[in-house]
Amino acid sequence: RNWISEKEYQDIRLETWEGIAKITINRPRVYNAFRPQTVKELIEAFDICRERQDVGVVVLTGEGDKAFCSGGDQNVKGHGGYIDEDGVPRLNVLDLHKRIRSLPKPVVAMVNGYAIGGGHVLHVVCDLTIASENAIFGQSGPKVGSFDAGFGSSYLARHVGQKKAREIWFLCKQYSAVEAEKMGLVNKVVPLDILEEETIEWCKIILQRSPMALRMIKRGLNAELDGQAGIMELAGDATLMFYLMEEAQEGRNAFLEKRDPDFKKFPKFP
Ligand code: 1HA
Fold first, then answer.
1. How far is CA 196 from CA 42, 44, 61, 106, 189, in A?
2. ipTM value of the model?
3. Cα(49) to centroid of ligand 1, in Å?
């Protein structure tokens, strides 16, 4: 597979191939832990994927065969957050969570090893998760002086239920890929050597489906959980579709032509 590199980054890779974008966290020496710079680059890459008309689905993964992502880089954890190059403490991964959920295209986590702490939350916020047999899942916050009471807790509980979510967070145990699949945290487990192949298969099927239908399903599933902000995004797409209709265009045309709009001809569906 000839992935095309779209841009040079320090901490990640952004590549595309036949409608699929692959974003790889590329810090294998620290098990793909993220620092503020990594997150900044991830946000930019997801924004590029949002804009690109030729991208229909995004895969998020980690470099190597050890880790998907081990969460925040403990080497730069300071007072108030993870310290960036300007000395500012940041928790900017929370902005990335929102970006992944808002992206009007499916995002697939391809978990190739440890998904721990903030790295676990990253796969939780993706739409689908395909894992290799060696993948290990778990939260670590209460062990290392952190917690994510946002999507990392409430959305996790939607996947696995409240009792299991509390177990995962209170005990900070690690779970095998098969255990994760059993609790509804993972869609499919495959051997590591066919992980990308399997993920690409899923992506190819997704690419055959109606992009607008996929977009509305993602929005609807989010809206149920996200309150007014979720309804806003679903409603935004309803407006998008309305703008594609002659009925909305009649309103605009009438305004520009300085006449009264004639909406009588449009159907009033039962
Ligand atoms: O909770 C949040 C947030 C909450 C709200 C808002 C924003 C948040 C942002 C982030 C986070 C967090 O992510 S908190 C949780 C941070 N992460 C962790 O607690 C996981 C730390 N890592 C581990 O527990 C283990 O490394 C491991 C279970 C993933 C793997 O263990 P293993 O196989 O024994 O390997 P290990 O030797 O520990 O790690 C390999 C190398 O990777 C080590 O480097 P070396 O000693 O060889 O030089 C290790 O130091 C490095 N490494 C692994 N994880 C991290 C790391 N270095 C920095 N940061 C890491 N997270």
1. 20, 23, 10, 16, 12
2. 0.99
3. 28
